[in-house]
Every structure is written in C-alpha cells, then in structure tokens.
## 1
Amino acid sequence: MAHFGRKAALRCIAFAFSLAARQGNASIPLAARLCPPRAFKHAALRCSLFTPNCTHVRKSRSLQKSQGFTLIELTLATAFIAFILIFMIAAMLQVMSNYNKGLAVKQINQNARTALEEMSRLIQSTNASAINTSQLANGRVCFGGVSYVWNIKGANTNKYTTGAAVTLVRVNDAAGALCGGVLPNVDPANAITLLSDQIWVQSVNVAVSSNQKLVDISMSLSTANQNQPTGTDPILGPICTGGRDSQYCAVGTFSTTVSTKDGGG
Amino acid sequence: MVRSHSLRAASECEASGVRASERGDTLVEVLMAIVVLSLVIVGAITMMSRGLQATQLAVEHTQVRFQVNAQEDMLKYLRDGYLSDPASPAGATWTSLFSGAPVYADTTPTNYNNASCAVTSGKSGFYLSQAAGVVSVSGFNPAIKPTTYALPGKGLWVEMMRSSGISPAYADIVIRACWSGAGNAAQQQTVTTFRLYDPAH
C-alpha cells in the first residue's frame, strides 16, 4: 500500500472503469473494490486526465466516507473513552466525599461552639450555690433558673411533654424542677434546642470543684443515626472508622473550665 | 508547531476534497484537551481537600479556644481569690506567680519566635490546671508536643509581664498555643492577650 504511487492509482481506477464499461455496470463499486482508498486521492489530483470519468471519481469519494470505522478504531476509541470516564467518575466521587465530610465536620464545630459557649456564659453568670448536678447521670444539669437536658446517642429517656425525644435543650426552669427527684418532661414552650437535627450527644460531663467555684465542662458530639461513629479509641473516645459511609461521619470532643459568678478562691 | 501541523493537515484535506468543517481533531489537539481536563479535575480535587483540611483546622481552633478560655478563667479565679482572701489557696497561688521560683510574672518582655513557635529567651511559660477547686501552676516545657491539638502544657502556655512603676499595677497576660494542624497542615498558632489588674503589687 505504501508503494501505491500516483501512476498505479490512475492505472487502477482507469482499469476499473474500462472493465465496468465492458460489463455495462456502474464503475464506482467496482473501482472501490479493486483500488485502495489512496488511489482515489491521486485520481482526484489528476482528474483532468480522464475527464469523462471525473464525476465517478468524486462519487467514489463519498462512498469512501460512508465506509465507517474499523473494529480496531472503534475498540480503541471505546477503551480511551472508558479510561477517561473512570478517571472522571473517581475524581467526582472523591470531590463529593470531601464535600460531605466537610459538611459533617462543620456541623460538629458549629453545634459544639453554640452549646459549650452557651453553657460557659451561663455558668459565669451563676452563683456557685445555684449549680445542681445531682441528675447528671440522667442527662440533666441545672444552673439556677436555666437547666440543660439531653439524651445520649439518640436515646429516648428525656422527652418533651409532646412525647418527642430531646437532643440537647436549654430550658427556662426558674424553680430548678427539672433536676428534682421526679424528672418531669420538658415543656417545649420553655425550651430552646441547641443542636441540629442530625447531631447526637455522645457524652456530657459537668464537674464542679469541691469549693463550687470552678466548673469543668466536657462535651462530645457526633453525627447521628446511621452516620454515628462506629469505632472507639482508648484516648480519643468515639471515632469514625473507614467505610462506605464514613464520609458522612464526624465526631469532636470539646472541654473548658469556667469560674462561677462568685468564684475566686 | 501545532498550528503549522494543523494547517498542513487542513491543506491536505482540502486537496483531497474534505471540507474543513468535516475534518476531525488532530492527535495533538486531543492530547491538549485531555491535559486541560486533567488539570481542571486535579485542581478541583486539591481545592476540595484543602477545604476539608480548613474545616478540620477550624474544629481544632475551636477546641484550643476553649482551652485558652479555661486558662483565662482560672487566672481570673486566682486574681479574684487574692482579692477576696490573700491567704486562700487561690490568693497564695496568685502571689506565688510573682514571687515564687521561678518568677513567672516578671517585667521582661516576651521574645517570641513565630517561626519556631517557641519562646527563645527572656520568658518562662507556665500553665494552670485544677483539681477539686485547687488551681496549680506548672512550668511549661516546649519539648512536650501535643499529639492532636494544643492542650495546657502540651503546646499551650501562659506568659505574664508585670507593669513597673504604674499604679494600679497590672499584668499583661499572653496565652499562646502552637500545634501541628490536621493533615500535615502548617503550624497552627493562636495568641490571646488580656490585662488583669494586679492587687498584689
């Protein structure tokens, strides 16, 4: 094929035309069968040499275009496109995973700041004698006029009067009734929810010093339900282990120490 | 080079009767397109990863901020303890900050090296911890590094600089925190400064 020169191309096509004329058939299919596509290119350049058949040569080029791709060409193109698609899909999955992880971590950060700063400020404006941590194990702590009620890991122990479970709420509780012996349900009219819907309390600890003037607060929050942390680290506590849905999981522990309003030695 | 190649390809096509609108892309054009596409995708992934890293760092800064607030509150607790009863444990601790060994609240200004994240000279750092309402003072050892975010004594310390010849006396307090951020991020630092008027001097 590589040595198929111009003269050979012209001879080939001219021969095909003459053969077809003798047989009384159309010359184009015969020429296309006999001569390689390169021959038509040369023939087009020398079209004037056999002008009567020039129209046939032009028609034969359109026939060449309609021949389509070979199987190898198609296979190579498909393989190439598949490779590109796999690369792009993997990249998009990674981007989406990062985005979801970022959202989860951001939620933990915002909720922890809201809840812990809220509690810190309240303790700083509360006299030591008003702090009641007797119901801490039941998810309640009272700071003289304001109480906090929570459930651990989506439990249903502490409820609103409507029957729905609380996550972590601040309740206006002038008498400190929520930390009494009966543990009444929370009136939603007096409660402000401090956490987003998809956040769980993993643990809350409020430790008051023996002189009642310094309070250690520690709070661990995580994503909720099927996105809760599945592993436990001896130092860090609950952690998100790797897995299909770990991109939606986040956990954080926050702690601080606050002095009460009448603190000071 | 590419242009001349394309022109040559175009002229060949025209010579062979194929219109410019019907010719395909050259190999170089296709490769260039793939390179551009790859760069865009890699850039997007890098940006998203950095965004996630920044979010994780924000969590660490929040955690450190609460620890800094705790140190600040304990210092106020000591100062107020001195005010209410200088002989109380808190009052005695406040006094010892100025007159103990080492003397933490001296009049030497801080010489802080931002790059190494350590005090190079002139100042000894300390940190506070509390147990059962008793706040104790410990010397800061810069060699003890935090494993995650900064904690008191592990990348978080307090420096005090006492006023001289001014009445009422005061102490300028600097709470510093320094730790390696999540995901091999750059060294993270926070500096909190406030002034406590000092009835002991």
Note: Residues 104-259 of chain A form one domain.
## 2
Amino acid sequence: MVLFAGMVGFGAMGKTNGFDVWFTSFTTFFMFALPGQVVLLEMAITGSSVLAIALAVTLTSTRFVTMTVTLFPQFHQKDRNRNLYASVHLLAMTAWAISMKEFHSIEVKHRLSYFVGLGLLCWLISIPGTILGFYLAGMVPSAVTLGLVFINPLFFLLTFTEVKPWINRIAILMGSIFGPIFFIVDRDTSLLTAGVIGGTLAYVIDRKFLRKRAGVIG
Amino acid sequence: MNVIHNMADALSGWGLWIALVGACLGTYFCRAIGVLLSNSINQDSEIFRWLSAVTYAMVAALTIRLIVMPLGLMSTVPLWIRILICALSIGVMVSKPTKRLVPALLTGTLLMVGYGVIR
C-alpha cells in the first residue's frame, strides 16, 4: 500500500522532470529500490556523471546486503541454493519488514514460498503503480501532481522517526546537515560526500562516545 | 515546462541509459553479495555498522534536499509551507508509537494537494 503510493509518486516525479515512461518504469522493473531510483532520477536531473550516479545508487543499495543477511538464514536449508540469487531481486523494504515479523510463526519449509509470493506481489504492483503515476501526473490538476511528487520525500522523512539505533539517528542528523551544505558546494557529488562524511562521523561518534554507555546502542 | 525539460536533457540519450544500467547492476550486486554473505557474516560487525550509517546519512541528505531545495514543480511551493506540512505529518506519525505511517503519509499528501487547490 505504502510501496504502491511511493511508486505512483515516483512515476509522477519522472513525468514532471521530463523523463519518458520507459525510463521511469524500467527503473522500477530492474532496480525495484525506491531510494535508489529517486537518487538516480535526482542526480540525472542535476547532470551528475554516470560514474557518480552508479556509485551513489550502489551505496544506497548496500542496505540490501544487511537485509538479506538477516532474512535469508531463516529459510530451510534445502531452499538455500542458487535459486536464491533470483528471489533476492524481490527483496525490498516492505517484503523484508513483513517477513521479519511473520517468519517466526511460519513453518521453516514454507518460508521461502511465503517470501517469494509476497515479494512478487510487491514487485508486480509496483510497475503499474509507476506507469499510473506517470500518466496521472500529466492528466490531473497540478495540485494533485504536487501531492504525488511530495509522497516520496515525505515517506523517507516519516520512516526516519522509526529508526531506533542511535548511530543511525546521528547519521540521519549528519546527513541532513551536510546534504544541503555539500549541495551548495558541488551538487553532483553532494549525496556521496554527505553520505560518506556524515555516516563516518556518526560511526566515529558512536564508537568513541556512545558505546561506553549502556542502553544507547539500541 | 520548458525549463524542466531542459534539466532532464543535462544527462540525456545514451548517458542516461548507461547510468540506469550501472545503477541496476549496482543494486543487484548488493543483493547478490547479501546472499553470498548470508552464511558467514555477522550483521553486528563494524563494517556493517559503518555502511548502514553511511546509507542513512545519504538517504537523509537526499530527503532534506528534496524538501528544502526541490527542483521542478515542488519549488513553486514556498519553503515554509513545505516545512509546515512535514512538521504536521511527523506530528501525526509520532502521536502514537505504532502503525501511523499511512495516516501520516495521507495527512501530508492531502495537505499538499489542499495547498495546490487554494493557492
């Protein structure tokens, strides 16, 4: 539901920024990672180099590494083979969060089927969602388009309130401060520099100060 | 609209598609690495703590930029309106500890549509 809204918003964003429907929906089909897609679109608009775009998008996708590592060991041993390299494409925030919550109540041997069904559903509704958003943005009054384009930044902002570990909260704060600063300095590389510097700073603060105190690691 | 179209032209044609392919490969690469490592790696290790901090900082930088310094249509909305709507949505979100994402998202989106109607 939220994912669908996000994809509709992304389609609208593609349309209002002058991309064609193929490009916009291809990103959903092959990337299926909303933050990465938004980064791709934003950096393409501001005219960043191809290498900077690919690197920044890859960095936003590193969360999939942690998500996979936490989720996949819960599958049955016999299901953990090469086919997982195909099903991992279906992994996204929504399917991950639901699976993590439900897996303990599902028998081990059924977990893979559950995950693939859920992931496939999310993926398949995302594509019409993107296309719908794209064409809606061209047809509806600009007030509605405004709302659609606003969905994604608002969605990211809201999910930040659910982040629990302090290291990641500090990282969000650092990114919020450094993001606009680096954007003024050099817009092409601003996401990369803000992410690496802000994230590293948060990591150092966490390591030097927070970990010594109990109860703040989260 | 012409100005907006020109912005997309900044990186157009082949460059844009190469960027897309690079982004797709990078994204899939991360997923595949996850599968590969899911047998061996500890998610509490230092490198993962650092990587997730970098990721959060980057997504935060993007989010704040999209709200504070947007491009295109959103830049026609005054900054204080954008911030006010965000603040109200966060208010809805944190008013109850769980399951407020959809109402909060609706609040913000409808307020933005409402602003678009009355301006």
Note: The first helix of chain A runs from residue 2 to 16.
